[in-house]
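Internal tracking record. Fields below are filled automatically when a chain is submitted to the structure queue. Please do not edit lines marked as system-generated. If the sequence contains nonstandard residues, flag them in the REMARKS field before resubmitting.
Queue: standard
Priority: normal
Entity type: single polypeptide chain
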Amino acid sequence: MAELSERTARAKAGGSERYHRQIEETGKIFVRSRLDILLDPGSFVENGLLARTMDEGLAADAVVTGTGTVGGRTVAVIANDPTVKAGAWGRETIRKIIRQQEEAALVRCPLLYLVDSAGARLDEQFDLFIDRHHAGRIFWNQARLSGQIPQICVLFGPSPAGAAYLPAFCDAVVMVDGNASAFLGSPRMVEMATGEKVSAEEMGGARMHCEVSGLGDQIARNDEHGLRLARQYLEYLPDHAEAPLPVHLPMDPVDGEPIDQLIPQAQNRAFDVMNVIRRLIDADSFFEHRALFARELVTGFARLDGKPVGLVANQPMRKGGTIGSDASEKGAQFVQLCDAYGIPLVFLSDTPGFMVGSQVERQGIIRRGAKYLAAIAEASVPRISVILRKSYGAGYMAMSGATFAPDATIGLAHAKLAIMGPEAAINAIYLNKINAIEDEQDRADYVAQLRADYMVNLDVFRAASATYLDAVIAGSDLRAELVNRLERYSHKSRERLARRHPVIRG
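SYSTEM-GENERATED OUTPUT FOLLOWS
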């Protein structure tokens, strides 16, 4: 018993005091303290604590694995210990990670990766890279678990080289500002290979990935904040793909200006769609996903009458609400995330369409837009499209308009729908006639009349009269309409097509 107590204490202590001081100097907290913050008190059941304590004395071989509860719900955790070999993966590290992934799959519970690792140990590479049960199996497992159980990554420190794919396979990635980093080649390696001199933060820091690359979904101020953000995801996600969604007590929206007054009738006048969202959802329930990336499209979780819902909304305050390449990637991932875990989707449309120009064409706007559209077409959860003010061109499809078979398409009283907005359409149809009018005032009057005539055809009541829309309602009635319709659609059966999977040019 004395030997057991000694080995247990040594394993739980992690690395030497010097390495504990090092992580404290960077604002980090010890891995077991992270678990204390994340998990309910006394709920952690550990696997593999005594790994490699017989000879090398590598405490738990630099990774803490096991299960616990968050708010009473079972979760599995895989947490690197940066005080032992900088959290680098050794042969037993990999066995422990794979074993914990397999247990999460069997228990059917969310899996949280608390990542702070220098990658694989090169001095052990022949024991951890080549065999079918070596390091690559971790990513194979992640790919297979995707859509079965929620996988959430909190990146506290580095995740370099091949290990950078670990966050990439997760449903949600939280990155701690100033400490987190992920890159395939380290700055030193990049300088040797290409001559480029770049810092770790510039190469793959939290802000770069949350604002530019899109790998990160949330940026955290520190370790504690990162763990709180991980817990927030669990407030909206189920235990597994077939489990019920977590439900809270219903709450009224925050008080404020009515929706009909928040949305200007003038088509090109900007407004903040976040104010509309706050008037629709349960108070303080919005949890934005990828807030710093592709800000022209807002994606996030909320609750309507206590029940989780995924929101996709154009943001007219950013690029006029046009949909670009990054927004397409953002929308596709969020739609797939909600659909995988049975979360209903509500689209709030106010967009002139997809971005145009040579730059976005070079960025692959067509194939990336198609990836987003394919995600919507594949989604089988309840889905409602709301036209707040305008929905033009392919943007109508990208906001799940009627042609993409939502359960309902609803327009507010001043909504406009068309293949093009009035300015673009008039230029496309009448440019030669307009240019032929020499008098400047006559030309302006002619254009104004053409726009007025064109706008008559975009009238929402015309679309409703032809049953292109399921309903036209006042903004003040929108919340109740959504709550009632989502309740009706909650028992919607999943359509399963006779195929293995679609082929998407992504």
